[in-house]
Design a protein that fits this description.
The complex is a heterodimer of chains A (336) and B (545). Helices cover 31% and strands 26% of the residues of chain A. Chain A is of the alpha/beta class. In chain A, helix 3 runs parallel beside helix 5 and helix 4 packs antiparallel against helix 5. With 545 residues, chain B is mostly helical. Helix content of chain B is 73%, strand content 0%. The chains are: A alpha/beta (336), B mainly alpha (545). At the A-B interface, helix 2 and helix 3 of A face helix 14 and helix 18 of B.
């Protein structure tokens, strides 16, 4: 998990520490984003995502650790770097008496240019009226102002900090198109998000952080592999020897009915064991992103990795919006 | 949750007022520092004047001479109103009924707008209104908060002056005159809060009405010696004075204040009932779809954000300078034969001819007030930072120093513009009454411009606080407040020189007329430069946001 020094990385962060008084916001965080990828940056509220981004923007100075952005130091080379970066905060505040169009142009000029044709197209797609004054925009529309400014710019690296909070599903769609279009133009995107469907649709790789540390990093396929598959089966006869198999968790046998979770890389042996008893019906649910994240988001990670996703923690669930793309998974998450 | 039925008589069911008690407690809790500070500072300032007048004019003959000369002078009547009684209390009422009423009005408008329009603008009201809170509860709670604050102010003034030996009835009358005017403008503020979507604009509108009331009274009192002008009588600030505390009080004037409060609050309630939450009667106009070429970076943005403020201050300074200049020619009459007042005025302004002394005092006052402008301009930086608007700008290709400098340039150069405007106003006002426009133009404008180094010291200290101790940045207002207090009431209180010297303005030569040496200017500029530099270094090195 510790990122090796990679001078070619668009973002390279290793062992980053930052404290505010006695609060430790970042505690040895690692993050590597390779050029041209869309990188998901995930973690529960207060995990340190925005702090990391503010260090990357040169607004905060890290206490310890290494941070490089496009090969440069984000604190010392801030101005040169910022010509190549477009940033969208999660909560956009605008000047009350500047119109949205003026703010878009201002941000463009602060970033070294913006593409007028793209600006016009984005305004149309996002259905944004640029003549309204800052104080009269709704939250979603303020967000659109920052998004139009970012996507209309020619920045090499887009840093988006929960950029779609407040957007409706239609606009979320437009946003996703814009990110993919930016990637097709060769741009790099660091996307902090809580929307799992968004992460799944857009991200090539993700990093999950918790309490200021990186707990997981890799492609979505890699991460899935680390989790468990839920299996529910109705058998011809009573199951035999399932509890002895490695990687089986939460085995629940009721007569001929079996429910269990199994480490995904141990699935094969479980299926073989089930078929020896004769399978009448079988549902196998792949690990959802939600489970994956819940596991890492859970406050009590516990000794045994994976324990977390057996509980449905209302608070944690509220923080993570369930993915629309994934099948709803009442089977996989059994409440004990 | 208790529904408090209070305030003006409007048709309203208790449902509309549901939650008023809770909102009132919330408002008092949020203002637990602000209201006591206002009440105590203003109340005790008024109450302490009894002692200083007693020390300065200890015989009835001196007081009656002062009253006679003040009433004979139109410009002094314009500034303070007529003297109705020449007792100690009567002089306190003469000096403070008008200014105290203005300050109480400012306190009220801050309270009311803060708990009505500001709550809506920030979106907090939406959450409150979604709970068990009636439609008229916020405006009622805001009015009650302002009412309680002003009653407390009236009691502090009344009790304080009574304790210092003044007649109780007159003391209470003065307290109620000041507090009552405060309550009246709380009603005005409820109207302004309905008219605009912006809390800042609502405060500005109410402030403009306060200013208009003061000007009407000043014009009326300048025109007639006994305050019988109708101009005085349509101004609520005029009412405060014409309650005639300590001079055979006219208690019925309180009915005017009560009726005026009822009428304005009724209008505020009626407007509230006719609009949606967050909306206003003066809708925001659309802006341009593209940015003008001038909005091209940090400096363009700072100029755009601050130019209207600067314009407002510039106009205000021309007008204020014109008024002060217009009354300067009558300055020698003011002092009359009173040796002690002459001494005070000389201490306030210098040893030159009395007219010059008066002009120098006015130039000094303009300088101190300009420090309010400069401090506000510097603290825009902190507002941009805490309001999360600095972050996206600094995430652009804008260096820290460039961003800080963009606002500092407006603050430092704006100080010069504002003071030059005040000087031109002062010179024109003075020239138009003497008929000699050119003769004193240069020295008078020079006198206001000479204030710049002292203002810059406070500007530099504000920059220092922003850069090095950002959490204490608002303490910069305190520094300006101390300078204002020292300059305004320090001479009357006969403070020792070292205390007076805490204010940067105390080190300036008394201009026009005084001797100019480079030393104080060099020192003041040096302090300003060092504190500004430290502030810039701090801002460059610290975490932002």
């Amino acid at each position: 998990m510790t990122a090796a020094t990679d001078p070619a990385a668009a973002v390279h962060v290793a062992g980053l520490h930052k404290s505010f008084g006695r609060t430790r916001a970042l505690d040895g965080l690692d993050l590597t984003v390779t050029p041209g990828e869309v990188h998901g940056f995930l973690g529960p509220n207060g995990a340190g995502k925005s702090t990391t981004i503010r260090v990357l923007l040169g607004l905060l100075r890290a206490d310890r650790g290494d941070a490089r952005l496009l090969g440069k130091d984000p604190w010392h080379d801030a101005v040169a770097l910022h010509r190549r970066i477009a940033y969208v905060p999660g909560d956009v505040t605008l000047w009350r008496n500047l119109s949205g169009g003026e703010v878009i142009d201002l941000y463009g000029r602060l970033r070294g240019g913006l593409d007028n044709a793209r600006r016009a197209r984005l305004l149309e797609h996002f259905e944004l009226d640029p003549t309204k004054k800052g104080r009269t925009y709704s939250k979603g529309n303020r967000q659109k102002v920052a998004l139009v400014a970012a996507f209309a710019s020619d920045a090499d690296l887009l840093i988006l900090d929960e950029p779609t909070s407040g957007l409706d599903p239609l606009m979320e769609e437009v946003f996703q198109e814009c990110v993919l279009e930016a990637r097709d133009r060769g741009r790099t995107v660091l996307l902090s998000s809580h929307l799992l469907s968004e992460v799944e649709a857009l991200c090539d790789r993700v990093s999950i952080i918790r309490k200021g540390r990186t707990v997981e990093s890799g492609s979505l396929a890699d991460l899935r592999h680390l989790t468990r598959t839920s299996v529910a089966a109705e058998l011809a006869g009573p199951p035999d020897g399932l509890s002895r198999l490695p990687g089986v968790h939460g085995l629940d046998v009721q007569g001929n009915r079996v429910r269990l979770q199994v480490d995904t890389d141990k699935l094969d042996a479980v299926l073989r064991s089930l078929t020896t008893s004769g399978v009448r019906s079988l549902t196998s649910t792949p690990p959802t992103l939600e489970e994956l994240f819940l596991r890492h988001y859970q406050d009590e990670l516990g000794g045994e990795p994976g324990d977390g996703y057996h509980r449905t923690d209302a608070a944690t669930k509220a923080a993570v919006r369930p993915s629309g793309a994934e099948p709803s998974d009442a089977e996989g998450v059994t409440t004990r | 949750m208790t529904a408090v039925l209070a305030g003006p008589a409007v048709r309203s069911g208790t449902r509309d007022l549901a939650g008023t008690g809770t909102l009132l407690r919330l408002a008092l809790r949020r203002d637990r520092l602000m209201i006591p500070l206002w009440v105590l500072l203003l109340g005790l300032t008024v109450a302490s004047l009894g002692g200083s007048f007693e020390a300065l004019y200890d015989t009835a003959a001196q007081r009656s001479e002062l009253a006679r000369s003040m009433n004979a002078n139109a410009s002094m009547r314009a500034l303070y109103g007529p003297v109705f009684g020449d007792s100690i209390g009567g002089l306190v009422a003469w000096r403070m009924a008008g200014f105290g009423a203005v300050l109480a009005a400012v306190m009220s408008l801050l309270i009311v707008v803060r708990h009505t329009r500001e709550e809506e603008e920030t979106g907090r009201q939406e959450m409150l209104s979604a709970a068990m809170v009636g439609r008229r509860a916020p405006i009622t709670a805001a009015l009650l908060t302002a009412f309680l604050a002003n009653i407390a102010l009236a009691l502090v003034i009344g009790a304080g002056l009574t304790a210092s030996g003044q007649p109780a009835a007159g003391s209470l009358a003065l307290g109620l005159a000041i507090g009552g005017c405060g309550i009246f403008f709380a009603g005005v503020a409820t109207i302004a809060a309905q008219l605009t979507e912006s809390a800042r604009l609502a405060k500005g509108l109410t402030g403009a009405v306060v200013g208009l009331a003061f000007v009407l009274r000043a014009a009326g009192d300048a025109a007639t010696a006994d305050g019988s002008s109708p101009l005085t009588w349509i101004s609520p600030i005029g009412w405060s004075q014409h309650l005639r505390a300590y001079a055979d009080e006219r208690w019925w004037v309180l009915l005017l204040l009560a009726a005026g409060t009822g009428a304005t609050a009724y209008a505020g309630y009626a407007l509230t009932a006719r609009r949606d939450l967050g909306m206003s009667f003066l809708p925001a106009r659309p802006g341009p779809a593209r940015a003008p070429a001038s909005l091209n970076g940090a400096f363009g943005l700072a100029w755009r954000l601050q130019r209207m403020t600067l314009l407002g201050w510039t106009i205000g300074f021309v007008v204020a300078g014109g008024v002060f200049g217009g009354i300067a020619n009558g300055a020698p009459d003011m002092v009359g034969d009173n040796e002690q007042t002459r001494q005070i005025l000389e201490r306030m302004g210098g040893a030159q001819a009395l007219t010059d002394t008066f002009l120098a005092t006015m130039a000094g006052m303009l300088g101190m007030v300009a420090a309010l402008y400069a401090t506000g301009a510097v603290l825009r930086l902190r507002g941009e930072e805490t309001g999360d608007r600095a972050e996206p700008v600094l995430a652009g290709a804008v260096g820290r120093l460039r961003w800080v400098a963009s606002h500092l340039v407006v603050a430092f150069l704006g100080t010069g513009v504002v003071l030059a405007a005040g000087g031109v106003g002062l010179a024109i006002g003075y020239g138009s009454t003497t008929g000699d426009m050119g003769g004193r133009f240069g020295p008078i404008v020079g006198a206001t411009l000479a204030q710049i180094p002292a203002v810059w010291v406070l500007t530099g200290l504000a920059t220092f606080l922003f850069g090095v101790l950002p959490k204490l940045a608002t303490a910069a207002w305190g520094l300006v407040g101390v300078s204002l207090a020292l300059g305004w009431i320090g001479p009357a209180l006969d403070l020792p020189q070292w205390a007076m010297d805490l204010s940067p303005f105390s080190h300036l030569p008394k201009l026009p007329g005084g001797d100019v040496t480079a030393t104080p200017f060099v020192w003041l500029l040096l302090i300003a430069a060092v504190s500004t530099t430290l502030g810039l270094v701090g801002a460059k090195r610290r975490d932002m946001g």
